[in-house]
Automatic annotation (TrEMBL):
UniProt entry keywords in alphabetical sequence: Membrane, Transmembrane, Transmembrane helix
Protein name in the entry: FlaA1/EpsC-like NDP-sugar epimerase
SUPFAM superfamilies membership: NAD(P)-binding Rossmann-fold domains, S-adenosyl-L-methionine-dependent methyltransferases
Lineage: Bacteria, Pseudomonadati, Pseudomonadota, Gammaproteobacteria, Cellvibrionales
PANTHER family reported in the protein's UniProt record: POLYSACCHARIDE BIOSYNTHESIS PROTEIN EPSC-RELATED (PTHR43318:SF1), UDP-N-ACETYLGLUCOSAMINE 4,6-DEHYDRATASE (PTHR43318)
Compositionally biased region (Basic and acidic residues): 631-640
TM spans (from-to): 20-38, 50-69, 81-107
Domain Polysaccharide biosynthesis protein CapD-like: 282-575
Source organism of the structure: Sinobacterium caligoides
One protein family per Pfam: CoA_binding_3
Start and end residues of each stretch annotated as Disordered: 631-666
Family: Belongs to the polysaccharide synthase family.
Length: 666
């Protein structure tokens, strides 16, 4: 086949000229062949028969040209091209009949019919042969792949990949037993049970999922049957993206984490989505964050009169404002978007914003959420998460805000770290304020990890796999709840509409996921093998690094067992203990004093004494406090440097050990 490569590489104009010459030869062969088939010879014909032949040839070539036959690319030949050949042949047949009648030449009535059949077979068949030759010429290139799904999407994908030098389709796999054993576009269809044998026998490297209409639960069941195979699994885009033009059928992607979770989204209740948003002035704090920005994207589509973006980071504000402006313009929403820089720790700034714009609904998403970072920056974590929430809530009361929704976390339930404890104190603050301020409805929405947020483990795993590993997991038994950012934001908006005052809403996160299993699935779906004691020749190893300071093996969503259903199937409400307003104010005052003096021992004691359920698993991890303690320890040792012997050495060793082990435990 390599000898034909010079033909494939010819300029397009030369290929068209060759096609015209060959079609002229086919017309002659069909014309004289029809005479021979009918009369047994071509001798003794009138000289004017040549006139009919030449006239028919000219008309036929013009018809083929006008119908676009010579613009068709043979390697992508479809039934449309064969239809064009059929129409051109019909025109040629009729022109032959017309010219014979016009020049009064006797031609048997069956000759035009035989001529048409010959011409159609020659022109159409030759093009099919060229297409097959082209496919054969390049079939040795590219990875051998199997298409899972022999429906319309699978057939379209196979056709799109036919001219590709990247993939070579070796088989279809489909669960429809009526298709098993059939051949589609020259490719055989096998049953699901035959998949492993097909992969081995045909040296398949990739499985392409062509099931854009399948639910996530169905896709998860299929993926679970593929993870043990040493093949990479790719998928076609969602059907809604293909139909809308956002993606093409052959734009293959990695299997999404949503498919691995197998969690189908629930259609939102429009009445709940609109209740606190449509026709209202809505403010989102932390608008540039993962959850905050998605809240903004969903809120702007529900018709608020104004959307106030409140964000500390200039860069994050720039990104979300630009994104929302594009949505506003593209969808002609006409929503007034107001980007405002500021800190939720500045109560006067927050109050001025709410009062000036007449804010009616607040979604408070501003928070520090990364457990290790807050462990290392305790004071700032408490200032932002506790005081930021308290000051924003007080500003909302004073500005006459109707509804205030706090975005909380599952780490607030029996927290083992400062971040979780600070979010639980923030929840207690809203519950305390709710009893004193009936004019503003406070509620909080608690949920677990969201996929794709900043610091999410999934992008880290993918990066480590791309770099050849190892993939790092903190503990072999650690589990987490996961939810997509759009679903989380959607449920937060709906939960806010259900609030009556002081409610703690808990989102149904589905089944928890074992992180080590998730890492293994990602490795295997990349066509690689997990390296282990049983498989030392594997491609990528799992490395367990140990739990980080304050990290739990598993997360919870409920403090007690008292939970009730709501009008939404994935939103529950929990009845939990809370603090009286006076006691909470006293706690806040003491925390403020301790934070001001960087008294970390006092801060920790206050968190332990408050009804947060705080059970720290490590010592004080604040980096400034540790550095100060170490410096003080060295200064004390220098002062006592005159005291020699074992006592001084032991004292220094003890103090350094105190710092490096995580600090003082109360």
């Amino acid at each position: 086949m390599n000898q034909l490569h010079f033909i494939w590489s010819m300029p397009r104009i030369y290929k068209r000229m060759v096609s015209v010459v060959i079609d002229s030869m086919f017309i002659a062969l069909a014309f004289w062949g029809a005479y021979w088939a009918r009369l047994g010879s071509v001798g003794g014909l009138e000289s004017s028969t040549w006139v009919v032949y030449f006239a028919t040839t000219v008309v036929t070539l013009i018809a083929f040209t006008k119908l676009g036959l010579y613009r068709a690319i043979l390697r992508y030949l479809t039934f449309h091209a064969l239809f064009v050949i059929s129409i051109g042949t019909l025109v040629s047949l009729l022109s032959l009949t017309f010219f014979a009648f016009y020049f009064e030449i006797y031609i048997p009535r069956t000759v035009p019919i035989i001529y048409g059949a010959f011409l159609c077979l020659l022109c159409g068949g030759s093009r099919l042969v060229v297409r097959v030759l082209f496919s054969k010429a390049f079939e040795g290139n590219g990875d051998s792949v199997v298409i899972y799904g022999a429906g319309s999407s699978g057939r379209l994908l196979s056709m799109a990949l036919r001219g590709s030098d990247v993939y070579r389709v070796r088989a279809f796999i489909d669960s429809d037993k009526t298709l098993k054993g059939t051949v589609i576009q020259g490719v055989r269809v096998f049953g699901v049970a035959d998949l492993e044998a097909v992969i081995r026998s045909k040296n398949v490297r990739k499985v392409l999922l062509a099931l854009p209409r399948a639910s996530r639960m169905e896709r998860k069941a299929i993926i679970d049957g593929l993870v043990h195979l040493s093949v990479e699994v790719l998928t076609v885009p969602r059907m809604i993206d293909i139909v809308s033009g956002k993606a093409k059928i052959d734009e293959l992607r990695d299997v999404s984490i949503e498919d691995l979770l197998g969690r189908d989204p629930v259609q939102p209740q429009q009445a709940l989505i609109e209740a606190n948003v449509r026709g209202k002035v809505v403010m989102v704090t932390g608008a540039g964050g993962s959850i905050g920005s998605e809240l903004c994207r969903q809120i702007i589509r529900q018709g608020p009169t104004s959307l106030i973006l409140f964000e500390l980071s200039e860069f994050a504000m720039y990104r979300v404002d630009k994104d929302l402006s594009a949505i506003n313009t593209a969808e002609s929403l006409g929503v007034k978007v107001v980007p405002l820089l500021g800190s939720v720790q500045k109560e006067n700034r927050v109050f001025a914003v709410m009062q000036s714009f007449g804010v009616q609904t607040v979604y408070h998403a501003a928070a520090y959420k990364h457990v290790p970072l807050v462990e290392h920056n305790v004071v700032e974590g408490i200032r932002n998460n506790v005081f930021g929430t308290y000051f924003t809530a007080k500003a909302a009361i004073n500005a006459g805000v109707e509804s205030f929704v706090l975005i909380s976390t599952d780490k607030a339930v029996r927290p083992t770290n400062v971040m979780g404890a600070s979010k639980r104190v923030a929840e207690l603050g809203l519950q305390a304020l709710a009893s004193k301020s009936p004019g503003t409805r406070f509620c909080m929405v608690r949920f677990g990890n969201v996929l794709g947020s900043s610091g999410s483990v999934i992008p880290l795993f993918k990066k480590q796999i791309a770099e050849g590993g190892p993939v790092t997991v903190t503990h072999p038994d650690i589990i987490r709840y996961f939810m997509t950012i759009p679903e989380a934001a959607q449920l937060v908006i709906q939960a806010g509409a259900l609030g009556k005052g002081g409610d703690v809403f808990v989102l149904d996160m589905g089944e928890p996921v074992k992180i080590s299993d998730l890492a293994k699935d990602l490795i295997q779906l990349s066509g690689l093998e997990v390296q282990s004691e049983d498989n030392p020749a594997g491609d990528i190893a799992l490395k367990f690094t140990g739990l980080r300071p304050g990290e739990k093996l598993y997360e919870e969503l409920l403090i007690g067992d008292s939970v009730e259903v709501t009008a939404h199937e994935r939103i529950m409400t929990a009845n939990e203990s809370f603090m009286a307003y006076e006691k909470y104010v006293d706690l806040i005052d003491q925390l403020d004093h301790a934070c001001h003096n960087f008294d970390h021992v006092k801060i920790r004691q206050l968190l332990l004494d408050s009804p947060t359920g705080f059970e720290p698993t490590s010592g004080i991890g604040d980096l400034v406090w540790q550095a100060r303690s170490e410096r003080q320890s060295m200064m004390d040792d220098n002062k006592g440097g005159g005291e020699s012997g074992v006592l001084g050495s032991d004292s220094k060793e003890h103090k350094l050990q105190l710092v490096t082990s995580g600090g003082i435990k109360p």
